[in-house]
Amino acid sequence: MTSTAEQVDRLSAWEAREARLHRVLPYVGLAVGALLTTAAPAPMGLPLAPHLLVAAIAACWVAWFVNLHPGWAARRTLMFVYYVGLLALSAVLVLISPWYGFFSWAGFLHSLLLPGIWRFVGVAVSAVLAATAQGGGMPVSLSHWLLWCVLVLFNLGAAGAMVWFSSIAERQHANRKRLVDELAETNRRLAETMRENEGLHAQLLTQAREAGVTDERQRMAREIHDTLAQGLTGIITQLEAAGQARDRRADWQRHVDTAIGLARESLSEARRSVQAVRPEALESARLPDALGELTRRWSAINEVRTEVSITGHAQPLHPEVEVTLLRAAQEALANVARHAKASRVGLTLSYMADVVTLDVRDDGIGFDPEVRPAPRQPDGGYGLTAMRQRVTGVGGELTVESEPGGGTAVSASVPALPGGAS
Q1: By mean pLDDT, which of 97-111, 318-332, 375-389, 399-413 is the weakest?
Q2: What's the pTM value of the predicted model, to 2 decimals?
Q3: How large is the C-alpha radius of gyration of the chain?
Q4: C-alpha separations of 266 from 48, 80, 330 in Å
Q5: Can you tell me the mean pLDDT for 42-60?
Q6: Helices 142-224 and 382-393: angle between axes, nearest 10 degrees
Q7: Which residues pair with 355 in a beta bridge?
Q8: What does the H/E/C string look like for the chain?
Q9: Does the first or last residue of the chain, that is N or C, have fewer Cβ atoms within 10 Å of its Cβ?
């Protein structure tokens, strides 16, 4: 683009100099013609008396249309009138004296002011005037006519080629200028687009930061619920039970020991949640083993019989998938302890080709999903919401089925994304 612009600038500078030359040359031709006509009158020319007056009129004609009003060059009608007058004055001067053939060449130069085919009409007429001047006046004999015809053809060919190539150069310059203008407009739009993109990029960064903050808040909320909230709930339950068993030393001690163990585990899990580390149960065991240990401890604390079954070929899953299933099992069991009043709970982990499913079923009191879509927690039901967010966050699906007196079934299906050994 820079090279093309430089070429257009150089061509524009050359055209400016050429235009100044075209405005000056007619006066040079008039001056030379007048000087030679005065000093060496042509023997076959017309009377010399009026030639200076006609030359002055021609000079004024050119000055008025070309020099004093350069903006008229774009007005075709005015330029047509100017050119006809120029040819008429040139014809009179050439008839007065052939020396004014120097001025008749202005017709070739200024034919470029005419549009289209009229340029070549002007060149043809100017060629006739130039040949008449070069032949010493109007032909009077056959040989003179032959010479005049040769001169006309020569002038017509030379001047016509000049005008032809000038027209081509003019079109090429116009095309280059149009190209440069288009490139400049494209660059301007590109610059505007880049400024808009910078603003959009800044906006996206702001939104990304806000989204990151929101995601981290949601993650911490889920982790707090899955660790501190459930742990504190269990501790409160054990301490209440210890208070009721204060006369039974063994039962009291058992509940207190369980509460202390839950407090330590909750504190450890809270620290791991803040550091975004996997649950401790998955650090030292595979998912089926971690679920088995989870249900065993939950059964001992809540005194509810549990059964765990594994179907399919157990395989290591992506860490996020295993954490999701473990947290879903924790939440489902916590809901059973708080609401179901169940005597038996069954947990099934099913490994299939593309999906891993966790089912938690109890024989508790159940509920009517049409009236109450899910068991609500004291904190407003965030537990089920957190469970659903976790499952859908890894591309899975959570369903809850229940009926009054018929127990509750919670099913979490997640993609079987492979991972390293747990």
Answers
A1: 375-389
A2: 0.44
A3: 52
A4: 124, 100, 13
A5: 73
A6: 140
A7: 415
A8: CHHHHHHHHHHHHHHHHHHHHHHHHHHHHHHHHHHHHHHCCCCCCCCCCCHHHHHHHHHHHHHHHHHCCHHHHHCHHHHHHHHHHHHHHHHHHHHHCHHHHHHHCHHHHHHHHCCCCHHHHHHHHHHHHHHHHHCCCCCCCHHHHHHHHHHHHHHHHHHHHHHHHHHHHHHHHHHHHHHHHHHHHHHHHHHHHHHHHHHHHHHHHHHHHHHHHHHHHHHHHHHHHHHHHHHHHHHHHHHHHHHHCCCCHHHHHHHHHHHHHHHHHHHHHHHHHHCCCCCHHHHCCCHHHHHHHHHHHHHHHHCCEEEEEEECCCCCECHHHHHHHHHHHHHHHHHHHHHHCCCEEEEEEEECCCEEEEEEEECCCCCCCCCCCCCCCCCCCHHHHHHHHHHHHCCCEEEEEECCCCCEEEEEEEECCECCCC
A9: N
- CA dist 34 and 401 (Å) reads 116
**Strand partners of residue 350:** 311, 357
∠ at Cα 347 (343, 349), nearest 5°?
175
**Which pair of tokens denotes residue 200?**
């959009």
Name the token pair of 309: 């079954």
Out of 62-76, 130-144, 220-234, pick the least confident. 220-234
From the list 95, 181, 162, 176, the residue with the least C-alpha distance to 122 is: 162
What would the two tokens of residue 297 be? 């401890």
Nearest in space to 288 (alpha carbons), one of 340, 358, 220: 358
Residue 52 burial by CB count (10 A; 0-12/13-18/19+): exposed, middle or buried? middle
